Amino acid sequence: MANPITPLHKTIEIDGLNIFYREAGSKDAPTILLLHGFPTSSHMFRNLIPALADTFHLVAPDYPGFGASSMPSVDEFEYSFDKLADVIEQFVSQLGLEKYFLYVMDYGAPVGYRLAAKHPENVLGLIVQNGNAYDEGLREFWNPIKAYWQDKNPENAKVLADNLLTLEATRWQYTNGVRNPEAIAPDNWFHDQYLLDRPGNQEIQLELFYSYGSNPPLYPQWQDYFRTHQPPTLLVWGKGDYIFPAEGATPYKRDLNNLEFHILDTGHFALEEDLPFIASHIRDFVLRNVAA
């Protein structure tokens, strides 16, 4: 068996910020741009990248305020999904990624769909893993966040901080809805929580919770992108995800004609439990659609 390809760990400057990213594979191979969710970073792709780098070029950036990228304060940087998408658009441009498959998960969906709707000619296909684009996907979990959208006051902010930014909440995101919690390494929530606990990061996350309210009004635009451009799509969705339940996966069938659809018996971070299945299907999906 060939030795796995070790990702490189790089940094690029965008608007005065250091944006960290993981990269592996030949730049002549089909590119997969991997956009991470909350509360993690490109760390969520640490095992997927070497599993696919023998055949593909994989690039996984950290957004500002996440992972090893710069973390300016909320007074120094606009923490909004529009701004994160702008940073990733510049990142893609600076790296010269002209055509790519787009892997979106959680926060990666509103970032990536902004990018795809703006530059549909660049996106060869979508890989959707627990990434929402439909009202059906925002259920009970979102009620306190929706309250914050309606009234951005300290009381509502405290509810979110106490329930979403603690070590127990981060551990829950990894273990809720999985088949076997003992299969999920605690390194995940220790790593993420260390970064969440940095001074000033809680304020950053609260800004992004508020900014998430800008995403549902864009759902019709993203759905129009699906219908108009019909990107080939691989959907792999953990059905045990309480944050983005499977009700948010099914509506993709309404708008996408070339959709490979898999509901998996796992939770929010499906790669932690179903990496072999997901990697295998990504490999087949990308090769099939590059050749098409």
- CATH superfamily, by name, is Alpha/Beta hydrolase fold, catalytic domain
Share in helix: 25-40%
Q: DSSP strand (E) fraction?
A: 15-25%
Overall domain count: 1
Order of adjacent strands in the largest pleated sheet: 1-2-4-3-5-6-7-8
Structural class: alpha/beta
Distance between the termini: 29 Å
Query: What is the arithmetic mean of pLDDT?
Result: 96
Shape verdict: globular
Task: Output the CATH topology.
Answer: Rossmann fold
CATH architecture: 3-Layer(aba) Sandwich
Give the SSE map.
Elements: E1 8-14, E2 17-24, E3 31-35, H1 48-52, E4 57-61, H2 81-95, E5 100-104, H3 108-118, E6 123-128, H4 143-150, H5 154-164, H6 167-175, H7 187-196, H8 201-211, H9 219-229, E7 233-238, H10 252-255, E8 259-264, H11 271-291
Parallel strand pairs: 3-4, 3-5, 5-6, 6-7, 7-8
Antiparallel strand pairs: 1-2, 2-4
Helix pairs in contact: 2-3, 4-5, 6-7
Short overview:
The protein is of the alpha/beta class and 292 residues long.
Describe the structure.
With about 290 residues, the protein is of the alpha/beta class. It has a single domain (about 10-140, about 215-290), classed as Alpha/Beta hydrolase fold, catalytic domain (Rossmann fold), CATH 3.40.50. The chain contains 11 helices and 8 strands. Helix 4 (about 145-150) runs antiparallel to helix 5 (about 155-165).
